[in-house]
Amino acid sequence: MNRLLLGLCLMVSLVMGCEEKKNVALTGEEPVEVEDFIAFFPEVTLPFRVADTSLTKNNGDSSLIAYSVLTQFVPDSVLSKDFGKGKPKLYPLGRVKEKNRETYLFVKAVLGQKRTAYLVTFDKKNTYLNTLPLVKSGQNYTTHYAVLDKKFQITTYRERKGKSGDILNFKKNVYIYNSASNDFTLILTEPNVEIMEEVINPIDTLSQKNKYTGDYLVSKKNFISFRDGRNASEILFFTHFEKNKGECIGELKGTARFVSSKVARYKESGNPCTLEFTFTSSGVSMKEVEGCGTYRNIQCFFEGTYPKKKKKSAKENK
Asked: Which domains are seen in the chain, by residue range?
């Protein structure tokens, strides 16, 4: 009889526990404990992969995490590096715990067309440790993904292919969480800089009727291209640069709008990134007005002066 009662009590306890967990919501309307915050993330098995294609999938609002809730446990500076003063929508992608060690949370942040996946770590006492950005949207890569494997190594991989389908370049980084220094330590990198022979210009074939359209370049891998926009007040651009022997790479495509006769500014809703282009008769100067970290490495910026490439005459083209 006592065993029966004990079994019933355990069943009731389990049911109540499940119901309590099911009813937890991270809308910011009620106080949230860190244990509830971590448990809200669905448990996943390793290896677990996050790709740029998965960032575009819609998540239900039932899984939405309020900005105020996440920043209660994770510093808001983590998000402001990519989203500035904007407050992205936040979704839980997965949770996994290394035995007797750290807990890893996969978080997706969405603001307009800008999307980023992060890996957030907590220690055994559920104290926040660090965050590693994994995958970001809006970058000109054919393939972009990250994997956390069974050894708790984090691999990020980016690949760009040419028109013929050949791999032009790729970059593979492998990290581990280092509890001694409380950061993600890079233990392996495989950039194939030796085959980076071509940078695909996605706007190359578009019309060039505006007086400022054309190609402005320092080299084949450091240039800005401008093409006609929808009207005279807009101009399309694509810029690519490589600095410090390929250690710092930046790339961005967008539409800039003229704010004066010689100055055009790139700024999209929900995106902190702001660029300013100042044209002269012989070239253009580019300046990063506000953080564009999503589109470049952290050690460098969108900046510099680019001389205008002389357009070929009809006779030369012939």
From this structure: 26-195 (no CATH), 214-310 (2.40.128)
